[in-house]
Amino acid sequence: MNAPSTRTRRAFLQHSAALAALPLLAPSVAFAANRKYRAAVFGATGKGDYGHGLDVVFNGRENVELVAVSDADAAGRAKAAARLKAPRSYADFRELLEKEKPDLVSVAPRQTGEHHAMVLAALRAGAHVYSEKPFTTTLAEADELLAEADKRKRKIAVAHQMRLAPSVQHLKKAVADGSLGELLEIRAHGKQDARAGGEDMMVLGTHLFDLTRLFAGDALWCSARVQQQGRDITAADARLTKDFIGPVAGDEIHATFAFANGVNATFTSRAKNREVAGPWGIELIGSKGRAKISANIPPQITIAKPEKDATRWESFQPPVASEGFPAANARVMDDLLAAIEQSREPECSGRNAMRAVEMVLAVYHAALTGRRVALPLTERGHPLAAK
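RE: above sequence
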């Protein structure tokens, strides 16, 4: 691969200097002036709790009124109601929907298995939804939710917050402008910690697959090898995790995806690879340079800078105030509300989230069959589920 040119470095630095001055999204003042949304939060203490700050996504919004919280666990419900200053609380989210009729619902449980029923009920009650990720455990579940949202003209956003990070959005523009040259390859790896393999791929890999699609579009096909203790997996290796995310398998994964325009991408999760791989994230490789996204909130981006004997990495972002999930979730919520007002899909849409889950399930389909599988998948169930 050719080293990045001086012109490429200059272009990246010019992009970086301009980042602070570029607005990312339409400001919330653009929302309907007289509209006030009634909002509710669904939690599930003991079954996923309240996600990464998804309980407080409505805080501090003049055009949103939090009316209630639901949680089947009495102690968890009381703590959540006190924490959120919710005027009412319910053990059953269905009762909440019937009595409160919210316009917005945050489906906050970490356990993916809780999402389908909660999101479906919220949509049928006429609410727009912000959901924790992973979106669903199967594609059939996602398909039903997306069809319901389309039918009722409701919007679904999913907590893939890094997609809307200012640095990631700016890198996307820089790549589109040719600062890396022609995009050739994307390499992604998970945290590769105690969850290495299937759990890592579903919990964190969905973030990485969402970012991969942001830069490369929809995958065309997948091939993969998934191993458990040194042997290729079978469906009998399926197991469930503490935070139910559907069946997972394998402690080592290497998958390859093909995209249009000759772009190839890989995903790796192997515990033995953790020490040399560095922070979890993705690397974009172009014909004129490289960029790394260290997946975090906020994500950190560096670019390749040529040296005489080696490649050095430098920051691709101006100094910004430290931020965490509140700011990241606020951007997704800003965009969801703008999407409602503008009758468009949110950037972090349920459809994008479904495609990330689809890439996960494609890995299992390819590994179990030993064949390359085409996307979109025709099989909408889970390949590890009992038939």
